[in-house]
Design goal:
The protein has 27 helices and 19 strands. By secondary structure, it is of the alpha/beta class. It is 58% helix and 15% strand. The chain has three domains: 215 residues, Rhodopsin 7-helix transmembrane proteins (Rhopdopsin 7-helix transmembrane proteins, Up-down Bundle), CATH 1.20.1070.10; 160 residues, Reverse transcriptase/Diguanylate cyclase domain (Alpha-Beta Plaits, 2-Layer Sandwich); 250 residues, TIM Barrel (Alpha-Beta Barrel), CATH 3.20.20. Strands 10-11-13-14-15-16-17-18 form an eight-stranded mixed barrel, surrounded by four helices. A five-stranded mixed beta sheet has the order 4-5-3-8-9, sandwiched between helices. The mean pLDDT is 88. The chain binds ligand C2E and magnesium ion (2 copies).
Length: 657
């Protein structure tokens, strides 16, 4: 009976289509796509040679030429066929990014290679033994007894691949696991069919279908290259970092942070900014090329790139980073626009330097914040000794620990009234005292707590502790009208904020006017509807609001007017430049603008007498000057008990009556 070659024809077409596709959309993270391509070529040649073999072993004329062609196509077929599963096992390892585990283990390589070599040994000796297959006088293909070895070897590779997929399943998602695995049952089924119906050549077809699953489900949907930035996507970097940390994969990473990227974006506009990012992505690759590096470039947002290199030579990675740093020293011209990029780079060697996923993420997002800008290329091995970084790295745990062991404490800093020439209120400021690192400033831990969600518990602590403080101390006797506390952005959008505050006021028997709340512009930005509602309801309760840190955000006047703030606090960075006549005019105009709106104005960060005097004198300069000042010049923040003592002293000395 004639062999049915339609399946091979179909398989060849599928292989060709997939090969063209992958060539066209060749992904840059290319090791796995190179092996996939190799697999597809092997599959294609396997199908083509299977077809040819089928044609020449189908009772054609028994000439020497036909016999040679029949043998040749069968040998090609067996070669390709025997290569397919071992390469597929390699492909699985590379897809899971665990090749390094096997690469380093000599025995694994030997074992992996031994069985393919055994296949090839049998195939070569078949020339003399004819124990694998032979072509009989009638030009028919006949199986020999050794062919069973091929099946056993195939079974071993299938078992090997299955074990690997199961063992490392946590590194990939279920869809990927499914499509990597599906080839095996398909091959087994096709072998059974082919065994039972010798003329149905379905095996290559099964392989083509199996790989097609992978290409359709993973390769196509998972195009890891972002067309906007020309770099690999963020989530792929996270997946790779996660897998690398789990499997202790040796590699180097260079983080590149373009610190002025947001102003470049504003300057260039969105379209050109993407073009700019693409230029940088290509540049990192081509610089790598000049020193013989193959690099995977990931864009992690906000001007931050991660460059992954399969090389662990620290000096070479640092040299690479230096080349990039030098490249950034030049001005880039785009469409007649000149762009100066400022970049800081950090080089880390894994797993020696970093063997935890979370450390990698912390490093990527913080290294450029904690280091002085004098150095452009940082070696992580030196950097990890940096105290700020160590704290940041452990901050989640430090905060958890502080919450369970009551390591948070409220400090109070008095607020001075120019008009009344005395303190009239105080701001409550949180402090975290860690056993290992001592005092950790709120600017460091509040953002981390906001990210982890711990801010809600911290906020609850602040609310309760400040209420308790007001209830324990007679504010009037201290000459104070109210205490201000800072609300974080996450607190502002708490749905039950009003209930919490109401029940605390009740529990401590406080009138709402003893409490004032500060919120920043950015807090008001997150969810204006919810924040607006919360602020409105709390104002109805009698709590007054101050806008904190005016001059650091967008300083959006509409927002100031849309929420019922009674006070605006000018940030210290805003008032820092009072010696600059232009800035002084801006400050004065800002103050009088707010005064005309009927707001109280407080100036933060008063550090010396000259500045204090300058603002005090405004009163005579302008129709309406600012009325409140706060800063180290008057008093530094102090623990509650010390603050109470200090205020008593002021009252006794007649300063605060
Ligand atoms: P803020 O609300 O603007 O607080 C004023 C900050 O300026 C405080 O820093 C204070 O110690 C500091 N400061 C006061 N006078 C001077 C001065 O003359 N010179 C200088 N250089 N600084 C001065 P602190 O306590 O480190 O707090 C930093 C920020 O952390 C606060 O800025 C606030 O945004 C946040 N924060 C503090 N406590 C809390 C809190 O209980 N809850 C929330 N959500 N955030 C808080
Ligand atoms: Mg404040
Ligand atoms: Mg402030």
């Amino acid at each position: 009976m004639a062999n049915i070659i339609h399946y091979d024809v179909a398989a060849s077409i599928i292989f060709i289509v997939m090969i063209i596709n992958i060539h066209k959309e060749r992904h840059k993270e290319s090791r796995s796509s190179s092996i996939l391509l190799l697999l597809l070529y092997v599959g294609l040649f396997s199908s083509l040679s299977d077809m040819t073999a089928a044609i020449y072993t189908n009772g054609v004329e028994a000439t020497y030429r036909n016999l040679m062609l029949a043998y040749f196509s069968n040998y090609v077929y067996f070669t390709m066929h025997n290569l397919l599963l071992p390469i597929y096992v390699l492909f699985i390892m590379v897809s899971l990014d665990i090749w390094h585990i096997f690469k380093d283990r000599f025995m694994n390589i030997i074992l992996w290679a031994f069985f393919v070599l055994l296949d090839f040994f049998l195939l070569i000796t078949n020339v003399f033994t004819h124990k694998v297959f032979y072509i009989d006088n009638k030009m028919h293909y006949q199986r020999g007894s050794y062919i069973v070895v091929f099946y056993i070897v195939a079974a071993l590779y299938i078992i090997n691949g299955t074990i690997i997929i199961i063992k490392y399943r946590s590194l990939i998602n279920k869809a990927k696991m499914g499509v990597l695995f599906v080839l095996f049952p398909l091959i087994i089924a096709s072998l059974i069919v082919q065994w039972r119906i010798g003329t149905a050549l379905v095996e290559n077809f099964a392989v083509a279908i199996g790989l097609m699953f992978y290409v359709i489900v993973i390769q196509r949907n998972e195009n890891p290259v972002d067309p906007d930035t020309g770099a690999l996507k963020y989530y792929r970097a996270l997946e790779r970092a996660y897998a690398a940390a789990k499997t202790k994969k040796p590699f180097s990473v260079v983080f590149v942070k373009i610190i002025n990227s947001s102003s470049i974006q504003v300057y260039l506009g969105r379209e050109r900014f993407y073009q700019y990012l693409k230029i940088q992505s290509r540049q990192f690759e081509s610089i790598a090329g000049t020193i013989g590096y193959k690099v995977d470039v990931y864009y992690l947002e906000n001007g931050l790139y991660a460059l992954f290199i399969d090389d662990t030579n620290r000096d070479r990675s640092i040299a690479y980073a230096n080349f990039i740093s030098r490249y950034f020293e030049d001005t880039l011209s785009m469409d007649h626009l000149e762009i100066n990029s400022e970049a800081i780079l950090c080089v880390a060697k894994c797993p020696e330097d970093i063997d935890e996923y979370s450390t990698m993420v912390t490093l990527a997002t913080t290294f450029y914040k904690t280091i002085g800008s004098s150095r452009k290329v940082i070696n992580y091995a030196d950097y990890r000794e940096n105290k700020d970084f160590r704290i940041r790295n452990e901050l989640d745990n430090i905060i958890r620990n502080a919450l369970t062991n009551n390591k948070f404490e409220m400090y109070y800093q008095p607020i001075y009234s120019i008009e009344e020439k005395r303190y009239i209120s105080a701001e409550a400021l949180i402090r975290l005292k860690d056993d290992k690192y001592g005092y950790i400033p709120p600017d460091l831990f509040i953002p981390v707590a906001e990210e982890s969600g711990a801010i809600h518990e911290i906020g609850d602590f602040v609310l309760r502790d400040v209420c308790r403080f007001i209830s324990d101390n007679n504010l009037e006797a201290l000459g104070l009208k109210y205490i201000e506390l800072n609300l974080s952005a996450s607190q502002c959008i708490e749905i039950n904020l009003i209930d919490k505050v109401t029940s605390l006021l009740k529990e401590y028997n406080l009138s709402a006017d003893k409490l004032r709340m500060e919120l920043t512009e950015t807090a008001a930005d997150i969810n204006p509807a919810v924040v607006g509602n919360n602020v409105k309801k709390l104002s109805e309760l009698g709590i007054q609001f101050a806008l904190d840190d005016y001059g650091t955000g967008y300083s959006n006047i509409r927002r100031v007017t849309s929420l019922p703030f009674v006070q605006v606090k000018l940030d210290k960075s805003f008032v820092e430049e009072i010696d600059n006549p232009v800035m002084w005019t801006v400050i004065k105009d800002t103050i009088s603008m707010f005064k005309e709106m009927g707001k109280e104005v407080l100036v933060e960060g008063i550090e010396n007498e000259t500045v204090a005097r300058k603002f005090s004198e405004l009163k005579t300069d302008l129709l309406q000057g600012c009325e409140l000042m706060q800063g180290f010049y008057f008093c530094r923040p102090m623990p509650g008990d010390k603050f109470v003592m200090y205020m008593h002293e002021c009252v006794e000395k007649g300063i605060n009556n």
